Amino acid sequence: MPPPLRRRSNSPRPPAAPVIPRREQLEPPRTELETDGLWDGVLAAAEHAPDPEEGAAQIGGMEIRESALENLRLSGARADGLRLTDVVISGCDLSGLVADGASLTRVRFAGCRLTGIVLSDARLTDVTFEDCHADMINLRMARLQRVRLASTRCRQADLLEARIADLTTEGSDLRGAAFDRATLSAVDLRGADLEDVRGASALRGALISPEQVLGVGLALIGEAGIRVD
After folding, report:
1. Half-sphere exposure of 15 (CA within 13 A, CB side)
2. Which residue in 60, 135, 155 sits closest to 99, CA to CA?
3. SS3 of 53, please?
């Protein structure tokens, strides 16, 4: 198992933005989304996604770089080993997509539906989620570094044994999230709803606001098995 991420400072570093060509320099994809395929410098829209009536897409090993994806519907797709580098994903439906072992570097999700997406054992570096619905997102044993959640709903997120460094949350909903045996470093949870989180002891060293003390405290009391009568 890789060593835990080491804390570098008390304040998390923000994620770097994706670096992509200007919109007019992007081109429509010349190939379909496919197993072990490659999209480089593309502007992909809804018509470039597989027909959902043909069943869930099989795009394991697909690599996408320096591209913009808009309004694609890939619900339930199988994308193990997916690689995204310098990609902006806007208004897409990726609910239920399974991408075990994925690698996401400098990726921005904006206004996406990500309910039940599986990114277990994935590596997320410089990733931003803005105005997304990501309830029940599965990040088990994932490695997160410089990740930002902004106005994003992640109720019942599964972060079992995840390694997290440089995380910020702004107006996000983490109610019921599970942090069991996670490793956190330079994490700012201010602005997040932390009601009913599990594995609260893993939040050691995280920064919270006075308004969050009661919710986190109750979670710690419950985890310790303390009874209040």
Report:
1. 29
2. 60
3. helix
pTM: 0.90
Distances (CA, A) of 135 to 4, 62, 97, 124: 26, 24, 13, 18
According to the model, what pLDDT value does residue 66 have? 98
Contact 85, 102 (CB under 8 A): no
For the chain, residues with pLDDT lower than 70 are: 1-10, 219, 221, 224-229
Residue 221's pLDDT is: 66
Q: Is 199 exposed, middle or buried (CB count within 10 Å of its CB: 0-12, 13-18, 19+)? A: middle
Q: What is the pLDDT of residue 5?
A: 47
Helix (H) or strand (E) holding 222: helix 213-223
Contacts of 55 (CB under 8 A, 6+ apart): none
> Coil, strand, or helix at residue 48?
helix
Tokens coding 101: 């072992």
Tokens 């439906």 map to which residue? 93
**Which among 150, 144, 181, 149 is positioned nearest to 164, based on CA atoms?**
144
Phi-psi region of 178 (alpha: psi -120 to 50; beta: other; left: phi over 0): beta
